[in-house]
Amino acid sequence: MKQASLNARTADVLRRLVRRRADPSVRKVLATARPPDIAAAISHLTGAEQRKLFSLIEDLEVAADVMTSLGEDAVLEVTRGMTDERLVALLDYMEPDDATDVVEVLPDELRARVVAHLRGDAEDEVADLLAWPSDSAGGIMSPVVFKQQESVTCGAAIEELQARHEELDSVFYLYVVDARERLVGVVSLRALLIHGPRTPLVSVMSQDIIAVRPNTDQEEVARIVARYDLLAVPVVDEESRLMGIVTVDDVIDVIREEAVEDMMLLAGVAEDIDLNGRSVFRLVRDRGWWLLATAFGGIIADRSIHLFQAGVPVEAIAGLIPVVMGMGGNVGIQSTTITVRAQATGALDMTGALNFVWREMKVAAMLGSIYGLILGGYGLMSGWPDLRIGASVGTSVFLAILIGGSLGAGLPVVLSRFGVDPAVATGPFVTTTVDNLGIIIFFNIVRLFLGV
Amino acid sequence: MKQASLNARTADVLRRLVRRRADPSVRKVLATARPPDIAAAISHLTGAEQRKLFSLIEDLEVAADVMTSLGEDAVLEVTRGMTDERLVALLDYMEPDDATDVVEVLPDELRARVVAHLRGDAEDEVADLLAWPSDSAGGIMSPVVFKQQESVTCGAAIEELQARHEELDSVFYLYVVDARERLVGVVSLRALLIHGPRTPLVSVMSQDIIAVRPNTDQEEVARIVARYDLLAVPVVDEESRLMGIVTVDDVIDVIREEAVEDMMLLAGVAEDIDLNGRSVFRLVRDRGWWLLATAFGGIIADRSIHLFQAGVPVEAIAGLIPVVMGMGGNVGIQSTTITVRAQATGALDMTGALNFVWREMKVAAMLGSIYGLILGGYGLMSGWPDLRIGASVGTSVFLAILIGGSLGAGLPVVLSRFGVDPAVATGPFVTTTVDNLGIIIFFNIVRLFLGV
């Protein structure tokens, strides 16, 4: 039996063999490797090597599975130069939701061409899925659902499952609908197994249905699946008619994707950055725009210092600018991160928001007092004879931290009240604003205390 | 049928009713509310209100389910003042892995008392689970597994499932073991349903088993479940004997938890911060220690500036300190975040690490050139007649960004090579180091260019 730790090595081995152009050995490894491991190997190769390795996969079904596990860049790469016929054949092997994910990243012209050539049903299903935003329940749902009428018995349902087992290859629940196709109940496979074959579904089904709408945001879908420990959640229209299901494996991808997005946005990196991407230019673009905010903020800081430096002993306090800025900025980052994450996991909702911000302000006031005293003490001892400099440092650190904590927690709350994704705008914005306010406060406190 | 968007309201309604002390109404809502919604309501209340609401839950099974969904602080709160008998009764209703999670947060004395009073089997199971680290496969696995010998038929397996259906309430797969209890195959419930009752398990089971060891890190378990789209992964000992399973709902919790931890550590917040926590003092403690690094770094920066300021026109360049620091620091945060996240998701492994760091250095060199030119240009125009100041700003920004990117990507790679969690040490450490190097570079470049 293979231990899981061995699986990662398959990817390594494949990578090395492709680099050495050892085609026969590659084919041998491919014949027994699991599709996700092949995909992992591909993600670390250069473009030409990716196309090469993918072309060596002989089994169409395996190739389709591999493509399903690839990132967007790699999908684009391996489809380049592929014949339309092969691409259509691969898409025909996929579940409609997976096929849609692949089709979505193709260039417009190629996409139109291949969708038109899919098998009858698949063409409609993919076209339907393409109609929903890719980050909504409709965009990630699978239209293949195992559903039955209320009057059907457990035994009949099992026979149906046996007859359609090829098509229904990821079934978690049986959904029960009424004569008008409205969802009225849900039966687990386990329940189907433990009840007698003559029991009607209506008497074993659970009527406590948790469902989402096709336009529900995928982050909300993920929260629901996580909160209620579901394996799949049904997607229904406004009349409660069953449209599809979102399965737990897709939800795991959403949770990972959204966590990456939030982290990247807070760090000032474009949210859709490809961690496996190899293009240095794209990475520069993904990060360069946000740095413009930092650069612009820095220029404002320089202007502020020039504006307020009259009468201030700049030589003495220049060395303290970094610490006043840094303390306020770092508390701002802490508060922003805590608030954005609490919103994402559902720990913070609108009704609790005021209390949350108030608590963050109390925390900031306490941290500000502690570090105001420590750094004020350092300021007093740091060689400048005028004690008022030390007092200014302490006061400025206190105020910078208080502002950092308040803005860091308050801004995401305000933004989400106005329907803006709080992670998008807060990271670099909070830091730049807090940095600048810290400098303005510092110089003006010094002026105030020195009476200039 | 309830739409999912309505579920969140149950939590709100409960919260408001408890605050208004409307006990009869609270009981009415509790009778129909879902346990995870009750838990969500509890998480937003004060300590006394939490105990109150929990005590109003009449059904023991519901109360046990609610407790399973609570955070650690809330578990401590609702168990305070509870009789040992009630707590033991609640634990007896839980799955062993859930009971272990609750028992783990109890004070030592209480823990020993209640574990000793659990039903025979449960006591052993909980004690076994407590023996593994809580962040390992052994610490999160459920010991309740549906397993059968190879020679058993599908029909007999279904009968066994029917007989034990109360105990086996979250079955995803049937595990097939040989005479020595070694795991040799896995059968999905779907496979059990679609094959004839006389088919032996050995002929329908998949022998391509993905398993983990009890000491496998939970983050690695999560990566495996996510990569292979599993509903559960078996945990086996060194002889391949089946010890338990880790289910997908626990994996979702792990993924969310680990993402929060990484984000918090990068932002300089203790990794185990409770987003629902209400204690201001604990939040100050969770954040205060990291700020000490910032404060200490700031003091070093002040010392560096004093050390290198002889002959430097401090009044002219003081305003530019923030932008040199900010650019280097922010590129450092970007690179650290990208690297830590790439490691966590498995996109970056050791064999690709050198290429990854090299790519980050190229990106940093390019970003440094762009912003070195922009800010150097600003320095040239910013009023100081000596063009060498502008040139120093540009050069310093270039070098600060290059160092920020290189350290930000390199440090997590080096740390994880030495087995240190890269997220733990990098966030505030990288920022503080890069900030200080930026300042030292800036002042010395100015001295170099001015020839002082």
Low-confidence sequence ranges of chain A:
1-6
Summed over residues and divided by their number, the pLDDT of chain A gives a mean of: 85
Terminus-to-terminus distance of chain A: 79 Å
Q: How many domains of chain A?
A: 3
Chain oligomer state: homodimer
Q: What top-tier CATH class of the largest domain in chain A fits best? A: Mainly Alpha
CATH topology (level 3) name of the largest domain in chain A: Tetracycline Repressor, domain 2
Largest interface in this structure: A-B, 132 and 133 residues
Net shape of chain A: elongated
CATH superfamily of the largest domain in chain A: SLC41 divalent cation transporters, integral membrane domain
Radius of gyration of chain A, CA atoms, in whole angstroms:
29 Å
Given helix and strand content, the structural type of chain A is mainly alpha
